[in-house]
């Protein structure tokens, strides 16, 4: 969507079940092999009692929404703030939802970002600012 097509309140979501393959692949890509993510025996001794997914794995689902749905192809990420509110366990289904909150100057758009698990618990909350594509000049 182009900047001029976006309106405050526009919203889109992406949902994904977090698998063991996702966690190991993400760990390999970013190099974060914290045993809380990849070692069951270690994780059993933590306050969570089992392995948790990387917080940024859930946070990265917002990028999926931005790049494929709202605003979609051609959007450029400018900033993202995230607060991690609850753990995401392997097997959880995370729904990342973004909502336009403000159209700013210089073609920038602010979005509320919220990710929930299958029980409706908010696991990640934040705000993003993007530069959606502008309509080509004739």
Secondary structure layout:
Blueprint: E1 11-17, H1 20-30, H2 35-38, H3 40-44, H4 55-59, H5 61-68, E2 76-84, E3 93-103, E4 109-116, E5 122-131
Antiparallel strand pairs: 1-3, 2-5, 3-4, 4-5
Notes on the protein architecture:
The chain is α+β, with helices and mostly antiparallel strands and 138 residues long. The protein has five helices and five strands; from the N terminus they run E-H-H-H-H-H-E-E-E-E. A hairpin with a 5-residue loop joins strand 3 and strand 4 (109-116). The longest helix is centred in the first third of the chain and has 11 residues, at 20-30. It has one domain: Thiol Ester Dehydrase, Chain A, CATH 3.10.129.10. It has a five-stranded antiparallel beta sheet. The protein is 24% helix and 33% strand.
